[in-house]
């Protein structure tokens, strides 16, 4: 065993040396000094979550922080202007992703955009998704959003205490309708289970063994060359093969159901239908196209469900804790929208307070604490700093949205009058949905889905603190520590408003 470890240490050192020599004599951005060969691996592996460590490093070293693991450079950027300069203006250099070998080559996520390397395949996926999710295409889903929102309101009226479950079903069914035109009316639906299993098991596998093969792709030979009976390897290979099958099942099953619905002539617009149409119809769809469409539609759940849920649950928390803001929003809705109907997406232009409200909501929530890392495809310099080819650039979105007075307060006025904005971008969506050529392609449908849910909930309900022994119990403004920023579970009262009780 000792021999294997020593041999492994030599192999790792040999693989790291070229990169370490390249960095010598160059002025890198400031950051924590790591150990030889492993770099900052130990600090990262000890951290409860990497982004919690990134916050500490940013406070200590500034707006741009360099660190490394096994000679692989990484950089945290917590300033909006620098992120824009690098990830947008220099998008030709910074639109790759780090090499996620385990996800893409072993676990079967090769057709999933968020982990895809920059190249022809990504361009194909971005083209397809942009054609089907751009602002004009997003309008074709207005009825779909209204339908799902109506189910949400009904569920909230019947069982207000179960609002977490209803928001989960809302976010999930929006994605399944959008991607496949399939109805998912409960969180226990088998399609949701397939998708959750694939995402959860892949994340577990990544935590257990992923990073090493990502840093040293040549370790893939373990999968291709080691016989199945090799100790330890047999179990690893078997586990990973099972996950790959789960990923395939999660992508293939709803796709097949969508195809059957399209063939029956009863399908409404969906991403799958749009993708098939854009290729000229089913008979022109090759096996490779099918794999791509399955991956494209399949990843919408992973990319869009949790982020939407985090935003809407945080909205409810904010309304309970900032009642004055709730009343102001309801006042605008009541002044503009007749009492015999609910606001819909066509009303958006007539509700300026709500527009500023949504901006403050994104700022206050910051649904993703850090961006998905971009990676650079060639050497670059920022100011005097050398940024080596292959650097993973992690934009700290939460930091960018908290550089204003009293960031913990929900203050819509920041975006109405522009005062109290500090260094926060005037439209937080510019940070919340990422940057440049990798910016979230779902931004318009996500924004429509958040807007209609929020505005219709405000029109229909009052969100109030619980009352115990005659005293109002305001929930704590506490959030979890995962990368998607969910509020910690809280309780509140949700009561139908008299003004629109009968709709
Ligand atoms: C409030 C909801 C959402 C938020 C906050 C959000 C945020 C983000 C962010 C920050 C990224 C990374 C961008 C970058 O790397 O620069 C991203 C990527 C992505 N998002 Fe969203 N998203 C949301 C909803 C959605 C929805 C509803 C969909 C699909 C309908 C979607 C599809 C995707 C995809 C496919 C990517 C990967 C793009 C790529 O790697 O090129 N997202 N999203």
Give the helices and strands, then pairings.
Layout: H1 2-23, H2 41-46, H3 50-61, E1 64-69, E2 72-77, H4 80-89, H5 101-106, H6 120-133, H7 135-139, H8 142-158, H9 163-180, H10 190-215, H11 221-225, H12 233-264, H13 271-278, H14 287-321, H15 323-336, H16 352-365, E3 374-375, E4 380-382, E5 385-387, E6 392-395, H17 397-400, H18 413-417, H19 429-432, H20 443-460, E7 461-464, E8 466-468, E9 471-473, E10 493-496
Parallel strand pairs: 2-6
Antiparallel strand pairs: 1-2, 3-6, 4-5, 7-10, 8-9
Helix pairs in contact: 6-13, 8-9, 8-20, 9-14, 10-12, 12-14, 14-15, 14-20
The structure holds protoporphyrin IX containing FE.
Binding site for heme: 440
Signal peptide: 1-16
Family: Belongs to the cytochrome P450 family.
What is the approximate shape?
globular
Report the sheet with the most strands, covering strand number, pairing sense and barrel closure. Answer: 4 strands, mixed
Helix content percent band: 40-55%
How many helices in DSSP terms? 20
Rg from C-alpha positions? 24 Å
Which structural class is indicated by helix and strand composition? alpha+beta
Number of domains: 2
- The CATH superfamily of the largest domain bears the name Cytochrome P450
Specify the CATH architecture of the largest domain: Orthogonal Bundle
Low-confidence stretches: 1-6
What series of H and E elements makes up the topology? HHHEEHHHHHHHHHHHHHEEEEHHHHEEEE
What's the average pLDDT? 92
Q: Strand percentage, roughly? A: 5-15%
Sequence of strands across the biggest β-sheet = 1-2-6-3
Number of strand elements: 10
CATH fold descriptor of the largest domain:
Cytochrome p450
């Amino acid at each position: 065993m000792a021999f294997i470890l020593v041999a492994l240490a030599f192999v790792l050192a040999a693989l790291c040396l070229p990169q370490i020599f390249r960095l010598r004599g160059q002025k890198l951005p400031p950051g924590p000094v790591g150990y030889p060969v492993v770099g900052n691996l130990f600090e990262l592996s000890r951290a409860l979550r990497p982004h919690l460590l990134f916050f500490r490093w940013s406070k200590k070293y500034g707006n741009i922080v360099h660190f490394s693991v096994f000679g692989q450079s990484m950089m945290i950027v917590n300033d909006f202007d620098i992120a824009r300069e690098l990830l947008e203006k220099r998008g030709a250099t910074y639109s790759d992703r780090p090499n996620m070998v385990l996800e893409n080559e072993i676990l079967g996520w090769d057709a999933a955009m968020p982990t895809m390397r920059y190249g022809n395949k990504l361009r194909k996926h971005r083209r397809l998704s942009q054609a089907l999710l751009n602002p004009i295409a997003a309008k074709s889903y207005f009825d779909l959003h209204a339908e799902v929102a109506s189910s949400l309101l009904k569920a909230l009226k019947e069982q207000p205490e179960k609002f977490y479950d209803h928001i989960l079903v809302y976010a999930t069914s929006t994605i399944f309708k959008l991607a496949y035109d399939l109805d998912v009316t409960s969180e226990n639906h088998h399609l949701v289970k397939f998708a959750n299993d694939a995402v959860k098991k892949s994340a577990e596998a990544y935590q257990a063994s992923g990073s090493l093969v990502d840093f040293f792709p040549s370790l893939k030979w373990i999968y291709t060359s080691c016989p199945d009976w090799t100790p330890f390897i047999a179990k690893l290979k078997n586990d990973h093969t099972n996950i790959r099958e789960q990923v395939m099942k999660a992508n293939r099953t709803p796709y097949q159901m969508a195809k059957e619905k399209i063939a029956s002539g009863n399908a409404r617009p969906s991403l799958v239908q749009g993708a098939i149409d854009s290729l000229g119809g089913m008979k022109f769809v090759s096996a490779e196209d099918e794999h791509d469409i399955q991956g494209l539609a399949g990843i919408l759940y992973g990319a869009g469900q949790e982020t939407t849920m985090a935003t809407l649950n945080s909205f409810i928390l904010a309304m309970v804790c900032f009642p004055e803001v709730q009343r102001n929003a309801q006042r605008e809705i009541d002044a503009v929208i007749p009492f015999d109907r609910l606001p819909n997406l066509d009303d958006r232009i007539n509700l300026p307070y709500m527009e500023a409200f949504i901006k403050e909501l994104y700022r206050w929530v910051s649904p993703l604490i850090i961006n998905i890392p971009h990676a650079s495809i060639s050497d670059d310099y920022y100011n005097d700093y050398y940024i080596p080819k292959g650097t993973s650039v992690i934009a700290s979105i939460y930091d960018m949205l908290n550089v204003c007075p009293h960031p913990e307060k929900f203050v819509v006025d920041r975006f109405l009058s522009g005062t109290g904005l500090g260094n926060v971008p005037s439209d937080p969506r510019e940070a919340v949905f990422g940057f440049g050529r990798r910016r979230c392609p779902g931004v318009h449908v996500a924004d429509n889905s958040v807007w209609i849910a929020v505005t219709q909930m405000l029109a229909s309900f009052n969100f109030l603190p619980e009352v115990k022994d005659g005293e109002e119990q305001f929930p704590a403004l506490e959030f979890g520590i995962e990368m998607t920023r969910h509020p910690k579970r809280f309780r509140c009262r949700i009561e139908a408003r008299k003004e629109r009780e009968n709709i």
